[in-house]
Every structure is written in C-alpha cells, then in structure tokens.
Design a protein that fits this description.
The complex is a heterodimer. By secondary structure, chain A is α+β, with helices and mostly antiparallel strands. Helix content of chain A is 46%, strand content 17%. Chain B is of the alpha/beta class. The chains are: A alpha+beta, B alpha/beta.
C-alpha cells in the first residue's frame, strides 16, 4: 500500500507544472548567484576580487544552505499540500475509509513530498555547479569541482533540515488542515532561529548555540568561525562532535515530531481543535421543523450607486478586510514574534561593547527597523490573502454579483493593507515608548516617532503594497505570489552585482535617510522623498495594471483574463495610464538627468577603469622631487544656511631636497578652485578628469629656496538630488584632505593583483618594508609635508561655534557672521579639521592644560567621564612617555559615524560614539567605551602627533596599537587586573573573527598593512601581554627612550623596527621569543586544561593537580598552519586514544597558570585569584601540582587570555 | 419584466459545450429550470448572473442588455449559487451588513432595519450573532436567501437550492421563495421535479445546453392526458418491455415486482392502465426524445 500511495503522489507532482516552475526558479537563482560570486559580471561592473575560493567546501556549503532556506517557503505548498490536498478536495472522507494503515498513508505522503523537495534541491546543486563554471567567470576564484563539498553540505545539513522543517510543517498542516498555518510556522521558525542566535551571540555561549541551532550553521561555525583564508579555501568542514550532536539532536526532534503526527493522527472527518477553555457541556439540540409561512414586507431603503457611496463602501469593506487580518492568527503570531525581536534588538541597540545607550527616540526607531521583515511578509502575504479571499472562502458567487464596482473591491484591499501597515508601525512606536519608559527615560519625542513611522517609513511600505497587490492579483495563488515577491525583493538589490547600479532602475530603491540628534534628518529627506514619489507613480501604474487583471466572476483561462483586461482598457483607464506613465518617466528622467547628466556619475566599472588610467598616466611622477609644505594659513568661510563653503589659503613651501625642482605637480579635487604661485610658471598640463595639473617653473626652485601657493576652493552649488558640499546645518566636520590641494602623485591604486593583471598593471607592491631605508621620507599621513606651522580663520553663522586646531586668538562678529582666528604655536602634522555647530561648552583644567568639550545640548550624560578620560590619559602619557605638546585639549562633537579622530589639540568625537552611552559602573557592566575611546584618542596626541611612523609596513603599530595599549593600561588602573579579562577576550575574539575576512594577506604586527584587526585588536593584546611579560615599567621605560629619540623628528621617519629594537634591548634573553612570536611572526597558541583536581591536605591547605596542554604554531600570510621553523623541528605529543598527534613549535615558553576561588562580596559571588605565576613550559603535555591556602574553584592555563588562542574557552576549568 | 435569452452559446476550455445556441423567454413569476446533473443549468444561471461571459448570444432583462451593462443587472439581481461559502468568524448579522454595503445601501439605519427584516423572514434572527460558517445546511441556504433579498431584487436566480435539505427545510425554503417571487422573475433550477410542480408557473427542461421543452407545469401535463400507461410486471420481463414500449420509468414494489410507466398515444395493450400524467412523465419524455438514437 505504501508504494501505491507513494508512487501515485510522485506521479501527481511530476505531472504538475508547478514542480517544474519551482525547479526552474531555483536552478536559475542558484546559477545566477554562483556565477555572480564567481565574477561573471566583471565585464559590466567592477572586478570581483577576493582571496576566497567561491566553490571551496565552505563556500559551497554556505551558498547551498542559503539557497535552500528559500525552499522552506515552499514546504507548505509541497509537503503540507501533500496531505492537505485530501482535505481540501474532501477526498479524505472517502479515502479514510479505505483499508490502508496510518503508517502507510503518512509515510508515503511525507516521503513522496520529501523526494520532490529533494529534486528541487538537486537543481540548486546543479545550478551552482554550472554557475561556477559559466564561461566568463573568474577562474582565479574557482577550484576544481569536488563532489564531497556538495555531498557533505547535502547530507550533513540540507537533508536533516528538510526532514526537520518538513516534519514540522507536515505536522502543523495535518493537524490544522490549513496551508497558511504551515506557512506561518516556517516564518516563525526562521524568526525564532534568529532570536536564539542573537540571544546566544555571546562567545561564552558558543557551545550551547552550536547545539541549539536547528539549521546547524552555528555548529559548523563552532569549528570554522576562526578559519583563516587558507583554511577556508582548503579544508572540509570537520564532521565531528558538535556538528554530529547538533544533527542528531535535530533529527531526533524531527522523528519526535513525526512520531507525534503518527500517534495523534486519526482518519477522521474533522481537524483537531484545541481550546483553552473547558469544553462547554454538550446539549441536545433540535430545530423548529414546522411553520414558516411569512409575509414578506421589506422595509423601503434607499439604494445608492453613486461614486461617493462607492467610496464610502470601499472604506467600509476595507474595515471588514482589516478586521479579518487583525483577527487572523498568522498575523497575530508574526506580530508577537516581531515584538520579541524588537525588544531583543532594543536591548542591544547601539551597544558596541555590552554597554547600553540612552534610549533616544531615533535609536528606538532604528531598533524598530528589525520589524521591516515582519511588515513586508505581512504585506506580501495578506495582499495575496485579501485578493483571493472571496475565492478561497467561495463567497465570490455572492460577492461578484453585487453592484459594487471592481475598483471599489480592489481599492478596499489596498486600504486594508495600508491600515495593517499603520497598525504594525504603531506597534513599533508603542514598543519603543514602552521600552523608554521601562528604562526610566522620559525624553520621548512623539513627533519624531510619528513623522518617521507614519510619514517616511509608511510610504516605503505602501510602495511594496502596490507591487504585492499587482503580483498577487495576476498570480492568484497567495503562496506562490509570496514566493515570487520574496524572490523579487531579494533579487532587486542584487541587480547591483549585475551592473544595474542606479536606484532609478530598481523598484523602490533610492537614497535612505538618517537621523541624529545634532542635525536631525539633515538634507536626506528631500532626496528620499523624491525617489519615493517617483516609485509611488511607478507603483500606481502597477496598481492600474492589476486592476485590469482583477478577477470578477469566473474566467476560465488566462487568455480569457487577457481579453477581459483588453476590454477594460477604455478611455478613462487609458488616460490614467498615459498620465501616470508620463509622470513616471518624466520624473525618472529628471532624476537620471540630475544624477547622470548634470552631475558626473561614474559606475563602479568606470571608477575601476579610471583608477587604472590614473596610475598608468601619472605614476611615473611618483618619485619626482617636490617642495614640502612648511606652513599653512587658511580662511574657511562656512555658509551654513545654503550649506556652502568658500575657502582660501596659502602654503609656504620649501625645497628640502638636494636637487633643483623644475615642476610642481598639483593634485586637487573637482571643487572650483584657483591656484597662484609666487614664482613665474606655465601650466603645461591640466587634467580636468583626474585634477592633476603640472606647472613648469620658469626658474627652478633651488635646494633650500622657498615659494608660496595661494589657492581658493569653494563648492559647486548644491543642486537637486546632488549635494556638492560637506557642510551640514549643524555639526559640520571637514578635514583638509577632503578639500585642499596636495603636491605630487598620491597613490590610490588598485590593490588586488588579479584585477591589476587584467588591466596589464604590474603586481601591487605592498608598502615598502620598514627595513627599506630609502622609503622613510614620508609619514603615513602626508606625502607633501613634514611638520607645519598652522593658522586658520574660520567663519560660520552667528549662532554656531567654529573650531580648528590651534589656540583661539580672536573672535568677532561681522555682518551677522561669527569669525574665529586660531593659531598653533608648535609644529603639527599637515592634518587638520574644521568643525562648526551650535555648541555648548564644558571647561576644566588638568595642570595648566585647559580642557574643553564642545557638545550638543542634551548630550550632557557623559561629559564627566570624558573629562576624567582626558585627564587620565594626559597623566599616563606625560608621566610615562613625554610631556604634552599643547596647552589645550578639546573634544568636539559631530553628529554621527560611530568614531572619534584625533587632530592636534582637537578631537572630533561623534555623538553616537559615547556621548549617549548609558554606562553601568558595576563589575557586571559592560566596557565604559566613552572613557576608553577618550583615553585612546588623547593618547594619539603622543602616538601619532609626536611619534609618527614612516609610510612603510607596520606604521600604524606606532600610533593605533600604542594608543590602544594606553587605553587598556588606564582602564586596568581604574578597574584592576581581574576585570581586564573581558576586554582581552573581546579583543581576542574580534581579532580572530576579523582576520577571517582578510581579503589579501595577514602580516605580523610590526609589518602590518594597516588592517584594523591587526593594529587595534592584535596590537592591544600584544602590548598588554608584553607589559605583563617584561613589566609595565620596563616596557614604558623603553618606550620613553624611544619617544625621546624620535618625537617631532624630520625625515627619515621612524619605523616599527626602531621601536621593537628599543623593546628588545630591555627584554631578557629568556623572553626574546615573545618578541619574535608577537611582533615578528603570527603565532597562535592552543592551550587547554585537560584535567584538574584539588585535594584538601592535612594542614588545611589544598593541593591542586593540573594536567594541561600547551602548543603553538605560526600562520603564513594566507593563514596556513606551520608547526616548524625549519621544517624539522616541531615537537609532538600523541594523547591517549587519539590517532593524530598534537604538533607544536619548539617550546621554551612562560605561560600563566592560575588558580581561583569564589568569595561572597556583598551577596555576590566574586572571583578571587589564589595563585598566578608564569611557568616555563617545554613540552606539550604538562602536569603540575600547586598548593594553595584556600579551597579553589577554578584553574586556568593563560587564564586571562593574554595570548592569542583560537579556543579561549578551554583555558579554564571549574573544579 | 421579461428575461429574453437569444442564441446563447458557451464552450469551455475542455471542449464541453455547456450552452448550445439557447433561446428562452422568461416572464414574471416562478420559472423552473429542470434538468439532470450536467445539463448546463448552472452554466446558464452563472451566465445570466454576470459571473461568466458567453461566447455569443445576448441576454436582455427588460431593457438591460445584461452582457453589455452588467452593473445595471447586478443592481436588480438576487443570486444564490448552487454552492457558496462564507467568511469564517463572521456572524450572520455582520455578514449581511457587509453584503448590504456591497449592494449600495448607504445609510446605517437602513441597513440595520433591512438586515433585521431579512433575518426575520428567513427565521435566522435568533442565531444572528452566531458565525455563519457553523450553520447547518438548511440554515445556510436560508442565509443565502437572506443575502439575496438585500437589494430588493427584480430578477432572482437560485441554483439547485433544495438539494440536500430535509423536508421541513425544503418546504420552508420554497415557501419563502414563493413569497419573494410574487412580483419578480424567479429562475429556479432543480433536478427535483417535485419542486417545480409545487412552485412554478412556468418551466423549461434543459439538457445538453439546449431547451428541450418550455411550458407551464399544468399545460405540460395536460398535453399528456390519456397517453401515460402503467402496468405491474415481473423483474424478468423488464428488458422485453423496454424494447417494446416507450418506457418512462420503473419502480420496485414491495413484492419485488416492478411498476412501469409507458408513454403511448393509445393503450399499448390490455394489461396497461391509463393514469393521470405527472410532471415526471413530462421530464422523462423530454429527455428521452433528446437521447441520441442508439442502435437497438
């Protein structure tokens, strides 16, 4: 019987066109995705370059699994429908009396559907296989086909997931006899998966998360998340422990679910029903069987068929439809889960380091953004449900013969959808406000909520509603319609990859908007609304089209619908079409005109080609001698109301070389500018594309001679849709590199070697090594200057304060404008900024340095923390390294961006990076990042503005790593050593994670190529560990000597080698290996506790026996593991019961061994350190015994995670 | 007002000619459309009710050209399809209010009064707050009548409304229908001859998309006066009689003998008794005459 049903079902599916449509869609989708990642569109758009092999085992696994998730949306209509078909056709009333068993029936239904799903999955695999190999893909990104990658992805992840989700959907549909229920279940499962993922995102929960992820992704991540480029390209996902447990758990759940179906399924007429209330006691019921002749006398009522009445009716119908949506439980469950997501996100919003932010309304709105998916799904789904509602409920026979016009019915569905959207947006508002109140925060900006949600956001959803109604009306199957809509929505942004870059060609795309406290929406709204208006026109055209295809009555074929549509296309309709089309196209043309014709817009392909051309044309001048800028004097006039600037300036330049300079290469930007040298010259080459001009001096500039350049720069007027000025209404922040000319060829070349090869460019040389003594002529900040004298006059509107580096000389008001004259009394780098806003100022003093914070009114929360941070940093740096070079230090707020940047005596600091942090000072609180960032930026006054590295590899170690080190040390002083573990663990995790995204190569710290994860995360870990190994005083002593030697030096500039040599000089021989491991190579430890026991001794002390492993290896620049320096000197250890030995480099290492206990402090258990000492380790497997005074609770090898170790979780073990 | 159907033809995608060059004139009063399952009754009624378009032909109701001006007809149309559903989780009252809105009744008080009245008429007032989806078959049919009354229709089309109703419900339904149908045109399709006999002042027999016969029920019976004969026979003799006579129907008696009815202008033989013609006879004769001539 099983096979009869099974093959009958298969045949049914194989005869249905839908099966082949699904296959075709997935085949095309996977083909396209695979081909795109493999660079098939390189000829039309910018070159795809990556260090990743796209069809590596991990690549195949990720793409394959990602595409399979889309199939889950088809489960209700395949797996669910397999059983629901019998209910729907009422076949079940006959079928269920037939002599087959439950098992036969259920298994045959389920597995036949699984086979069909598998067939569709197969097309994904085939699509990917072909896609990677399409002619035109980039062969450097693709390796030979490896069936194992596909096979493993399939049987390890995809098949169990299909069985699990299939079983759940099958169960839900079987019991509810409702496809929609199955559908909602899929959405809810995806939501729930997302929620669990974010709840368990903490690294400490990784094991748990790995087991609990029903998709198994977290389980494979458990092993692969720290994989380097090499490992990602070469290795198969290991099929072991956590992955297998995860798969077994979820296969177990799948069988359980199916078992429940089997147990509770009965061949019965009616669906199972659940009730939360007790069953009402049954009552015998009879109806009246006699009588019934009545006199019919209908009351006289007015029947009104006017347009106005139809409008009123439309509104009324929309209320009925709206009620239907709101009462339907798919909607309720989406809202419920969406709410949970919102709350989780709100708790997390703006928390970069586990520290929460004050719940400003704009942050609440940002958090509500997570609801987008819920609103879109509801829109897509309910558009389908409403359009087909009367058909599904079989009411169309009654409804379609009433004298209500089609437009009224159609419009009512649209209005109902919009009402639903408004309700959902209200949910965001209410939850945001509730969250604010819950946090005890009462600055609720109701107006902002309303403006953003019901103005700006709603219009976006309405445009989706247009499309949804159109597609659902034409398709007439809500689930297929939803699927198509999802594909469209996911597909639209991907068009960019295929070279369709401009929003004007992509439905409902366009510039977004952003809000911040200082500048509000700035000027983003007019652009946003222009595009939205354009798409509303486009959407209305879709609506008109849909209304042509609106089904009234019972047409029997699409051809009939087509001919009905044709007959409906009468004069008024045609006029509306023409008007809308004309509006849409003229609007589109206006936008295109503004962004493409009146504005130089370059596609990413053109940008790539221009970069090539630039290098080919001008690189030859790179080493051409140029004068150096020695003094800068600028006037900067900011016109806030019109967002314009006009500036002029004078560079004093000196020929510091030993040759005569005959030409000046002036590198500027496309702002309207004028240039005037005080020496006679001729403009021999003017390039208006690359803005690179060559002036030939009549008399060469002799060594030691000087000259000046006077220039003016202003912006082109801002025009419709195009902003040509960086000036904003409140909170302008511009630096000199954005505006002012520089001298000589300044790089900006393509870096990817494969792309360069394509354009016949020689391979990209890394920056020179620090050992290259000929490359030390420039700092990594500027190529045309060393240290300069600086003076600036900045003017702004009368109600704003303008700031530039230097000391305020004079401030005055003239013609309604406010002027500030700043002058620096010491040499600075050629790197300065202008800020202007309506500021409040807080002042303080540290010794004789005046401290100022220029902040936005309302952002007073953390000013004291910032002041403390400034003082602490000034204290630490000046005590340990050298005196502070200025008499003043200013923090200046700018609107947003999440960063701060240190200029001479001036630190622009973005409003969302600390000003609104809600710091929890208790031990459980997160990182006080306001304080940490302040300390870091102030430290840059030394580590960048006193000591600046030459433009060679490793330069940022001297600035960023050291500033980060200072921040850690100052924090350690505040908080104590034990508290540092959470920062170190965070840095370690960030380093290990971000290095996996490395696109080119990872170099050791002292040769780093500028990557953030090396210079910040690894840098801070390394210097912190080093200070622990050789002592903070010793390290700082060496740094002090070093600073003395190199601060404010003229070229040749210092390098990382110089600094490391100073450190080496104070490091004992036994620890020289630390310098090699940390600075000169990439070295990774694998330390773990194997076992630990403690026994109480007779004298009341405790003996702790610890067995632990220590091993380390090096990574090459691609991340390949090397266990030996010479090829023969690795050591190994074969643990009992294992077949693969643990390998390691030779060990002569000193590693922390720690023993801890817990103490009750004020009712809270706190960790206390009983023992911490470095032990010399020479072998992999180690056993030691330590005696401590108190009862220990935990032991650890490198317990504070000072060393780089890819599994930091197994460094400690509880006793 | 008169409904005039001229040369109406409708062929479905699968090649079935559901309506075949059909001509029909229907005046005020109850009109019974009698036909076996699959005769094309529903197709015809759906076409009149503007739910589907014919391939050719015309339908006029008074001066309304139904195929050209569907809206005009819908204003005066009451239609009850053979099977219909209702929106779940909506009470009769709410659903009727909804339909009243669709039918152009703008004033809320008007709607309330009308809904109350139609609920009274159909005896649903007591259960007006209950979800219609939970109604029994009879109640649901009555609800169908209730919604149909809302626009005070001039043309009422009901498609096999009594199928599946118990005798009490059937009577009640027919009574209500009769009551509403006094001053307008009611087209009432059924395959139950009884219904027509009890109710209609005019009727037509439809099969294979064609009208086989149109007459008033009494007239039709009148025509057969003296031409219907009956006889009790053994089961074994049935085939012989079938071959020999124009057999209209045969029914078992309690003793397993058969009661046959035969159509013949004169007494076929002595053992046949003349009986009063019934509408069933009209129906079977019409169908019989339409049967393709098979080789005997």
């Amino acid at each position: 019987m099983f096979s009869t049903i099974f093959f009958y079902e298969l045949k049914y599916w194989l005869k249905r066109p839908a099966t082949y449509i699904y296959m075709a869609i997935f085949f095309m989708l996977s083909l396209l995705m695979a081909a795109t990642t493999a660079g098939i569109f390189d000829s039309v758009t910018a070159t795809t370059s990556s260090a990743r092999i796209v069809n590596s085992p991990i690549g195949v696994n990720n793409l394959f699994n990602g595409l399979t998730i889309l199939i889950f949306f088809l489960f209700p209509s395949i797996i669910g429908a397999s059983i629901n078909r019998d209910f729907k056709s009422e076949m079940h009333s006959i079928l269920y009396s037939y002599p087959f068993t439950k098992a036969n029936y259920l298994f045959a239904k389920f597995f036949s559907a699984i086979v069909i799903v598998t067939l569709i999955v197969l097309t994904i695999g085939v699509g990917m296989f072909i896609g990677f190999r399409m002619p035109g893909t980039n062969s450097d990104l693709v390796i030979a086909f490896d069936i194992k990658s596909y096979f493993n992805a399939y049987w390890l992840f995809i098949l169990p997931n299909i069985l699990l989700f299939g079983a759940i959907v099958f169960a839900v549909v079987t019991f509810t006899r409702n496809i929609a229920a199955g559908f909602i279940t899929v959405i809810l499962l995806l939501f729930v998966q997302g929620v669990t993922e974010s709840l368990l995102s903490d690294p400490d929960n990784r094991y748990l998360a790995a087991l609990l992820d029903p998709f198994g992704a977290a389980a494979s991540n458990y092993y692969t998340q720290y994989w380097t480029a090499y490992e990602q390209n070469e290795l198969h996902i290991p099929i072991k422990e956590v992955i297998l447990y995860n798969r077994l758990i979820w296969l177990g759940v799948a069988s359980l679910v199916f078992g429940l179906v089997y147990k509770f399924f009965t061949f019965s007429q009616n669906a199972m029903s659940f009730s939360f209330f007790k069953k009402v006691k049954g009552e015998r019921s009879t109806k009246r069987n006699f009588g019934g002749i009545t006199k019919i006398n209908l009351p006289k009522v007015a029947h009104d068929y006017s347009f106005i009445q139809n409008l009123k009716a439309t509104w009324k119908i929309s209320n009925v439809e709206f009620k239907y949506i709101v009462k339907s439980w798919p909607f309720l469950s989406i809202v419920l889960v969406g709410l949970i997501v919102i709350f989780i996100v709100l708790v997390d919003v703006g928390n970069p380091f586990g520290t929460s932010t004050y719940p400003r309304t704009w942050l609440m709105l940002q958090g509500g953004g997570e609801f987008v998916f819920a609103i879109n799904i509801c829109t897509f789904l309910y558009a389908g449900m409403l359009v087909n509602r009367s058909k599904i409920a079989n009411v169309n026979g009654l409804e379609d013969v009433t004298p209500i016009p089609n437009w009224s019915l159609f419009l009512s569905k649209f209005i109902a959808i919009v009402k639903m959207q408004i309700l959902l947006l209200t949910v965001i508002m209410v939850s945001g406000i509730l969250f604010q109140l819950y946090k005890g925060y009462f600055d609720i900006e109701l107006g902002l909520y309303i403006k953003e949600l019901f103005g700006l956001k709603l219009i976006n959803y309405v445009i989706w509603a247009f499309l949804a109604l159109m597609i659902q009306t034409v398709i007439r199957n809500p689930y297929l319609g939803l699927f198509v809509l999802l594909v469209v929505v996911i597909g639209i942004p991907l068009l960019t990859l295929a070279g369709v870059e401009q929003a004007v060609f992509k439905y409902n795309e366009g510039p977004g908007f952003g809000f911040n406290d200082m500048n509000g929406y700035g000027d983003s709204l007019s652009n946003y609304l222009t595009y939205k208006f354009y798409w509303v026109l486009g959407g209305l055209i879709l609506m008109l089209t849909a209304s042509l295809f609106w089904v009234r009555g019972l047409p029997h074929s699409f051809r009939e619908r087509l001919s009905i549509a044709k007959s409906r296309f009468k004069t008024p309709m045609a006029i509306a079409f023409v008007v809308l089309l004309a509006g849409f196209f003229s609007m589109g043309y206006t936008i295109y005109n503004a962004t493409n014709i009146n504005n130089d817009r370059y596609s990413s392909k053109e940008v790539e080609e221009m970069t090539v051309e630039w290098e080919k044309t001008y690189k030859k001048y790179e080493d051409y001698a140029q004068p150096r800028i020695v003094a800068v004097k600028v006037n900067m006039d900011l016109f806030i109301d019109d967002r314009n600037f006009e500036s002029s300036g004078e560079y004093a330049m000196v020929n510091k070389t030993e040759t005569a300079i005959d030409s000046i290469f002036l590198n500027h930007n496309d702002y309207p500018s004028t240039f005037k040298f005080n020496r006679e010259n001729t403009l021999v080459s003017e390039d208006t594309l690359y803005n690179f001009d060559i002036y030939k001096l009549k008399e060469p500039l002799m060594p030691g001679d000087s000259m000046t350049l006077n220039f003016t720069v202003k912006n082109k007027p801002n025009s419709f849709l195009v902003s040509n000025s960086p000036v904003i209404k409140n909170g302008t922040f511009i630096n000199n590199m954005q505006l002012f000319p520089s001298l000589g060829y300044n790089g900006g070349e393509l870096t990817d070697d494969k792309t360069r090869e394509k354009y016949d460019l020689p391979p990209n040389k890394l920056k020179p090594l620090p050992s290259d003594s000929t490359a030390l002529g420039n700092t990594y900040i500027a190529k045309d200057s060393d240290w300069i004298d600086f003076e600036a006059t900045v003017s702004t509107s009368e109600d704003q304060i303008a700031i530039a580096p230097g000391y305020l000389q004079k401030e005055w008001v003239k013609d309604g404008r406010r002027y500030f004259h700043y002058k620096m009394d010491s040499k600075i780098l050629n790197f300065y900024a202008f800020n202007s806003a309506k500021y409040k100022v807080k002042k303080d003093k540290w010794k004789d340095v005046s401290l100022e914070i220029y902040y936005h009114e309302g952002h007073e929360y953390n000013l004291d923390r910032m002041m403390d941070g400034m003082k602490a940093s000034l204290e630490y740096n000046s005590e340990n390294f050298s005196p502070y070079q200025h008499r003043q230090l200013r923090i200046v707020e700018f609107p947003s961006g999440g960063f701060a940047q240190s200029f001479p005596n001036t630190i622009p600091f973005s409003g969302d990076a600390g000003f609104i942090a809600d710091v929890d000072d208790s031990d459980e609180g997160g990182v006080d990042y306001t304080y940490a960032i302040t300390v870091h930026e102030v430290a840059h006054q030394w580590w960048a503005h006193q000591v600046i590295g030459a433009d060679v590899l490793g330069a940022t170690m001297l600035s960023e790593s050291l500033s980060e080190y200072v921040a850690l040390k100052v924090l350690e002083k505040e908080l104590g050593k034990p508290q540092m573990r959470k920062f170190l663990k965070k840095s370690l995790d960030d380093y290990l994670l971000r290095r996996t995204f490395e696109r080119k190569r990872e170099k050791p710290l002292m040769y780093n190529d500028g990557q953030g994860y090396i210079r910040y995360q690894k840098g801070s870990l390394v210097f912190y560990a080093l200070s622990d190994y050789i002592g903070e005083d010793v390290l700082n002593g060496a740094l002090k000597t070093y600073v003395e030697k190199v601060k404010f030096q003229e070229p040749p500039y210092t390098t990382s080698i110089d600094m490391v040599n100073h450190i080496k000089a104070v490091t004992p021989d036994s620890l020289q290996y630390v310098i090699k491991d940390m600075f000169e190579t990439i070295t990774v430890y694998d330390n773990r506790i194997k076992s630990a026991t403690s026994t109480e001794l007779d004298n009341g002390k405790y003996q702790v026996d610890i067995e632990f492993e220590v091993s380390k290896y090096r990574n090459d620049e691609k991340g390949k593991q090397l266990f030996s320096e010479t090829g023969r000197d690795s050591i190994s250890y074969l643990p009992e019961g294992k077949t693969k030995p643990i390998l390691s480099l030779q060990l002569q290492d000193y590693i922390d061994i720690g023993i801890f206990t817990e103490k009750d402090v004020d009712g809270k258990m706190k960790e206390e350190q009983l023992y911490l000492k470095k032990h010399k380790i020479t072998v992999i497997d180690n056993k030691i015994s330590i005696i401590v005074d108190e009862k220990p609770t935990e032991v650890g090898v490198d317990p504070y995670n000072k060393l780089i170790d890819r599994n930091s979780g197994d460094n400690r073990q509880k006793l | 007002m008169k409904l005039v159907i001229t040369n109406l033809t409708k062929t479905y995608k699968n090649g079935v000619k559901a309506i075949d060059n059909l001509n029909l004139e229907i005046g005020t009063g109850m009109f019974g459309l009698l036909g076996p399952n699959g005769a094309g009754k529903s197709s015809l009624m759906r076409t009149i009710a503007t739910l589907q378009s014919p391939d050719s032909g015309s339908i006029m109701f008074g001066d309304i050209n139904v195929l050209e001006d569907k809206m005009a007809l819908r204003k005066v149309l009451g239609y009850l399809p053979q099977s219909f559903g209702v929106y779940p989780k909506m009470s009769a009252e709410a659903l009727l209010d909804y339909f009243a809105t669709l039918k152009g009744i703008s004033s809320k008080t008007d709607r309330q009064a009308l809904v109350k009245e139609v609920l009274d008429i159909t005896n649903l007032y007591d259960v007006r707050k209950k979800h219609v989806a939970g109604y029994s078959g009879g109640m649901k049919q009555r609800f169908g009548i209730a919604q149909l009354l809302l626009n005070n229709p001039k043309l009422i089309i009901v498609d096999e409304p009594t199928a599946g109703l118990d005798p009490a419900e059937r009577h009640r339904f027919l009574n209500v229908l009769r009551e509403v149908g006094t001053n307008c045109t009611v087209i009432f399709s059924t395959h139950i001859v009884e219904d027509v006999k009890e109710l209609c002042n005019d009727m037509a027999i439809l099969n294979g998309g064609r009208i086989l016969k149109q007459a008033t029920p009494s007239q039709a019976r009148q025509e057969l006066q003296g031409r219907i004969w009956t006889k009790i026979i053994d089961r074994d003799d049935l085939e012989a009689h079938e071959a020999q006579y124009n057999l209209l129907s045969s029914n078992y008696n309690e003793d397993n003998s058969l009661n046959i009815r035969v159509f013949n202008d004169t007494q076929p033989s002595d053992d046949f008794k003349s009986v009063e013609p019934q509408l069933d006879d009209v129906y079977f004769i019409a169908l019989k005459q339409d049967e393709p001539v098979s080789a005997v």
